[in-house]
Amino acid sequence: MVIEDQDRSPGLYNHPEFATDYKNARFFIVKSFSEDNVHRSIKYNVWASTPHGNKKLDTAYHRDAEKICGKCPIFLFFSVNASGQFCGVAEMVGPVDFEKDAAYWQQGKWNGQFPLKWHIVKDVPNNRFSHILLQNNDNKPVTHSRDSQEVKLHQGIEMLRIFKEYEAHTSILDDFDYYDERESQKVGEDGGRKEETSCVEQLSERSYQSPSSIASYYGADNPVRLASDIGKRREKEYSSVPTTSDLYGNRGPRSFTRVKSKNSSGLSSSAGDATNDSSTAGSNPSLYNHPEFATDYKNARFFIVKSFSEDNVHRSIKYNVWASTPHGSKKLDTAYRDAEKMCGKCPIFLFFSVNASGQFCGVAEMVGPVDFEKDAAYWQQGKWNGQFPVKWHIVKDVPNNRFSHILLQNNDNKPVTHSRDSQEVKLRQGIEMLRISKEYEAHTSILDDFSYYDERENEKVGEDGVRKEETSAVEQLSERLQAVSVEDGKEWEKEDLKEKT
């Protein structure tokens, strides 16, 4: 069946009279694998979640929305994984139909689907919400939520208000033609999906305001939008301009300032201004991003490292150590011991990215085994197990769209930007990531914010004296590596001085 085009003009959303104050309402975070799925949700007024997510939302709908006779709306805050932003608000307006097969969506693991009504469609950066901490999720920022995470009433109302009042310059509506084309190509490749599309269309007829024709909207002013999975027009606009300030909810002060002038290392001139304790040399930009850093290897292993926050990356650079989850530590330790058997001819590189930052922040090399006896209380969260020494080679902010073309066959052909912590990257693709990381001309790095994170660390240590002992242990573990790094840095500075004279 041919899908009838439906109207998607911006006049259907973001109405000034949309209510944001409720005595009874429930709110949930929805995390989408891609904007393709959000596009289809807006187009057909439906959504499909995981089995766990559908069960949770269906229970909420039957228990509250129906019993209170429609006086308890259920709102869903949508965000695409690794995009660094939220993209809209929809209302669940019907129960989950668990009999519906979800092959229509980009991935086949979704189960069941339900009708909804979209109220707000706009791009709102994470930093507008990052102050909202969820007590029902270990006091993590709402921007660090998993799919189907519930948000309490007063916080949900605050999120609605922020969504409504934020003056956005971009939205997924800007790219509707682009996603229409992608959808058509996918349906053409897999004829079996046409029948499923028909089922979704029939279900969406029962939802609120199911319009009749699609009209793409292109705003007059479309500034940069950083994300690993964004529409073609906005991605092209981004690729030609430097990183801007207000798109991240999980970065230091550099995310609130305009791009600074570049110094000789290719990073902002303030990178070397951060002052540190004499026992650490982590903020010295001459220690990293060396032009002679090798990017071609016959034998090497590569892993993605996802950090909960930049605080932890700061400490890793400062003390030349890292701590992972039990699973991650075991996986990396096994890889290191396998590499040792090759007599040091198989380096292990780690590509670091902070959750929801929309970028990678550096490359480090694992230079020692995991010490599973080390308590990881030193780090921001207590769930890490063991720690191991690392040597940082590259420290710079590189946006996700520089890597999003790299698809991992060992991870369901997902873009490398959609990787979980300790995801391995194959040799050829890892070498390509090294090359991109080395050659990218960055304007910012976490080095710009080292003083800021030093202060945060000192405040934390002051609040919890127990951490001082752990900090000392970490410093002892990294002492040998720091000595090597400092000497390398001094030699580098001497060579640089000779060239200048």
Q: Can you tell me about this structure?
A:
- The chain has helices spanning 35-44, 51-65, 153-165, 176-189, 192-204, 232-239, 310-319, 326-340, 427-439, 450-463, 466-500; strands at 26-32, 46-47, 74-80, 85-92, 97-101, 111-125, 133-134, 140-141, 150-151, 301-307, 321-324, 348-354, 359-366, 385-399, 407-408, 414-415, 424-425.
- With 501 residues, the chain is an alpha+beta fold.
- The strands form four sheets. Strands 1, 2, 3, 4, 5, 6 and 9 form a seven-stranded mixed beta sheet that branches.
- Strand 12 and strand 13 (359-366) form a beta hairpin.
- The chain is globular, with a radius of gyration of 24 Å.
- The protein starts with 25 loop residues before the first strand and ends with a helix.
